[in-house]
């Protein structure tokens, strides 16, 4: 059974129908406390998702058979079929590049920071991410797991295109 996030949205889960200015003020979202059981279920769900993600991105020996598609500016693109996705959405792509860094340096690039507020997309795609709120920090770094971070976040994005309105989403990271 998949758990649902118990969030109260004043904007019917989307900021599109209502005129609001971003960034939203802190405290805009009502986030009732999570029970310990629900918090642990979210953590387990995120751990399962990570294991699934790592398996699916294995170039060889994973559940997806990857085929070379093309190379562009040092990024090799592979195409595959994820049979767990709905028909019509099964084609997936894997981008592979080489980065000269230690594992700690690579982890730092993707890090959510000690408080979970930093966001990779907001940092590296700041022309598209117009607002971000950390709704529920579920797991934070510890001395034994310095790269640990699991949060439920809200993000508002734009495509910088007059035909596409501001979109928002709640997601677990």
From TrEMBL:
<protein>
    <submittedName>
        <fullName>Uncharacterized protein</fullName>
    </submittedName>
</protein>
<dbReference type="InterPro" id="IPR052727">
    <property type="entry name" value="Rab4/Rab5_effector"/>
</dbReference>
